[in-house]
């Protein structure tokens, strides 16, 4: 896929890997919606990107991806603002085993619901033009993990990949880019 002129939605885009992905997409000529639950980091990120790229190339959306209604609204805002969606990066994630239910909600459930929303907007079967969905995971999902991460969450993401795979078979499909800690 040529990235130039495409519209991307990146969750957890205010910092870290998500921000780097957003920046890389902008360098390639895409427009990027920066979705993050940290208002301060999101505003700071958008301001920094505005110094490098035209301000209208990015849109910051303050959203907790584990809030289904807010996530749905975020997709709607992206299409209202940019007119379409071509690339979805479900990157937002946390490492907080003390609040494991919220962690699973963010790291697993939101990835599944985000993927379905991506299909709603991009699937050719739904009148869209197709696209790419990238679901971020971890090496912990595919092998031995001796860190403090509760393996269930990350392994859940591996499961997500297999749940989503049949749905995405008509797409250019990328999943589980691994990042070593
Ligand atoms: N960095 C690593 O070594 C590593 C290893 C394994 C997996 N990962 C995965 O890669 C992804 C990115 O990691 P990172 O290191 O850049 O993390 P990070 O903590 O630096 O950045 C995560 C971003 O996601 C945002 N975020 C978290 N929960 C959110 C929510 N509910 N709604 C919206 N935004 C939310 C945060 O505000 C932050 O901006 C995560 O999914 C993480 O699990 C990273």
TrEMBL record:
Membership in a protein family: Belongs to the short-chain dehydrogenases/reductases (SDR) family.
One of the Pfam families matching this protein, by short name: adh_short
EC nos: 1.1.1.141, 1.1.1.232
Entry keywords, A to Z: Fatty acid metabolism, Lipid metabolism, Oxidoreductase, Prostaglandin metabolism
Catalysed conversion reaction: resolvin D2 + NAD(+) = 7-oxoresolvin D2 + NADH + H(+); prostaglandin E1 + NAD(+) = 15-oxoprostaglandin E1 + NADH + H(+); lipoxin A4 + NAD(+) = 15-oxo-(5S,6R)-dihydroxy-(7E,9E,11Z,13E)-eicosatetraenoate + NADH + H(+); resolvin E1 + NAD(+) = 18-oxo-resolvin E1 + NADH + H(+)
Full protein name: 15-hydroxyprostaglandin dehydrogenase [NAD(+)]
Gene Ontology process terms (BP): female pregnancy; prostaglandin metabolic process
Gene3D superfamilies, per the entry: NAD(P)-binding Rossmann-like Domain
Group of enzyme by EC: oxidoreductase
Gene Ontology MF terms in the entry: 15-hydroxyicosatetraenoate dehydrogenase activity; 15-hydroxyprostaglandin dehydrogenase (NAD+) activity
Record's keyword annotation contains Oxidoreductase: yes
Function of the protein: Catalyzes the NAD-dependent dehydrogenation (oxidation) of a broad array of hydroxylated polyunsaturated fatty acids (mainly eicosanoids and docosanoids, including prostaglandins, lipoxins and resolvins), yielding their corresponding keto (oxo) metabolites. Decreases the levels of the pro-proliferative prostaglandins such as prostaglandin E2 (whose activity is increased in cancer because of an increase in the expression of cyclooxygenase 2) and generates oxo-fatty acid products that can profoundly influence cell function by abrogating pro-inflammatory cytokine expression.
GO cellular component: cytoplasm
């Amino acid at each position: 896929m040529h990235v130039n002129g495409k519209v991307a939605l990146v969750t957890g885009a205010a910092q870290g890997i998500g921000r780097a992905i957003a920046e890389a997409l902008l360098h390639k000529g895409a427009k990027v919606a920066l979705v993050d639950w940290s208002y301060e980091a999101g505003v700071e990120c958008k301001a920094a990107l505005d110094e490098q790229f035209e301000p209208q190339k990015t849109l910051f959306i303050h959203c907790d991806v584990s809030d289904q209604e807010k996530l749905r609204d975020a997709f709607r805002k992206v299409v209202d603002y940019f007119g379409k969606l071509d690339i979805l990066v479900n990157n937002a994630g946390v490492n907080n085993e003390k609040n494991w239910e919220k962690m699973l909600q963010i790291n697993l459930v939101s990835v599944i619901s985000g993927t379905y929303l991506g299909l709603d907007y991009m699937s050719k079967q739904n009148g869209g033009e197709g696209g790419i969905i990238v679901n971020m995971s971890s090496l912990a999902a595919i092998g031995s993990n001796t860190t403090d991460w509760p393996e269930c969450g990350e392994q859940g993401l591996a499961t997500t990949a297999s749940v989503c795979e049949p749905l995405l078979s008509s797409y250019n499909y990328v999943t589980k880019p691994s990042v070593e800690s």
